[in-house]
Fold this sequence. Notes:
By secondary structure, this protein is mostly helical. Helices cover 65% and strands 11% of the residues. The protein has helices at residues 3-18, 25-32, 36-48, 73-114; strands at 52-58, 65-71.
Amino acid sequence: MDEYSLKEDIFKVLRVLSSGDNLSQRELSEHLGISLGKTNYLLKSLTQKGFVKIKNFTLRDQKAKKVKYILTKKGIREQLRLTYHWLKIKEKEYFSLKKEIKHVSCAVKSIAEGGDDQEFLL
């Protein structure tokens, strides 16, 4: 698992937890599109680092205990830090893609204006 991928997964988990939705590990894993095992690993890691606190509770009409994952102040700061880095990465990707689109558009326009009957691949 590369570091960028791991940081992106941590960012996604923190973002979902900050929404306040009380999701189980299974629901969180389905929501993020990652395995249940990886979700468990990430939550344990975030708990050990002090970013997430686990609160056990029982609903009145149910016997089974439920778990709620709560972001700590440290977790909120980490989420903000990762959000900043995520935005910087996405901004670079956006400008790179914008430049590539402009380049390809100019090439297509040039071919179209040249009156070439050649087929071209993009």
